[in-house]
User: What shape does this take?
Amino acid sequence: MTATSEAGIAASPFHRGETELQARAGVRERVEHLGRTIIRDHMPEQHRELFGKLPTLVIGAVDGEGQPWATMLVGTGGTGGTGSMSAAGGFISTPDARTLLVAALPAPSDPVAPLLVPGAALGVLGIEPRTRRRNRANGKVTMAHDGRPAGAGAGGATAGFEMHVQQSFGNCPKYIQARTPLPRPRVPGEPRDEGRLLGEEALALVRGADTLFIATASARRPASEGHGGEGVDVSHRGGRPGFVQVTASGGGHRLTLPDYAGNNLYNTLGNLLVWPFAGLLFIDHESGDMLQLAARAELQHGGPELDAFPGAQRLLHLHVLHGRWRPAALPLAWTAPEFAPQLLPPAGS
Assistant: This one.
């Protein structure tokens, strides 16, 4: 997505891939008007309020080969008197409407860890599953600090990073399962690499998932200034357990997701149309295990496979390239899901 111009006159917030899919869906003119209304070059107060109370943050970044990766950060803030995460214990702050400060960094074993360097393009997703609120922001890293003193006699700074926000926009609550995170200290296990064929634990997590996150980019090396529509996005996908279908294809595993009607912005799919690589994140809401996958994406707009998913507009095929399994990576457990209204059977059925 592109930012507003320096003169303050809003340019189109969409790049070529997004506009092509909007036109194909017959919503181009309407969505252009909508985008100019809801996509801002700063965080409005309600977005800042949500980021400030979240116990988790999903981020997406791109490595030197152009491969997007997604991860989830967890704040180390306090807990409320009931044992739930405290709204006052947030680890994200916004000193102004264009600055996001995150007091956390990925673990060294996380593929995203080496990517948070000044100038890097970044996408973040703030999602509160309990209320189904979610906001997205895109921009560039302006500072990162590992928390170690800079020199003799220097005081240690809080580990984390700063992002300059270039786009901020809300998303609808569709397909989000309502659940509440609870702190559960864990000792992370030894991470291991996944190949094109996933191991049994990884397969079980993917096949049973009701939620995943997907990071995409509009170019192999997206410009951190948003020129020409370049940037990084990270977004949410949800469904009933089993909505991600897994098949063996060409010596590796292929994940297939049905794509249903959404907000028609086509941020994720528009990116994949012009740069067909994605980073996937699956989390086990009970054990805190994390699976991060690199994948090559393929969009299918018709055919017999699509007919098997009533109501789906297209299929998104994701061919696994490699990945990382990280046992007990998250110090949280979530309550049982309350499925999104869109995923419940019709009344009386």
Notes: The helical segments are 16-24, 28-38, 45-53, 200-208, 267-274, 304-307.
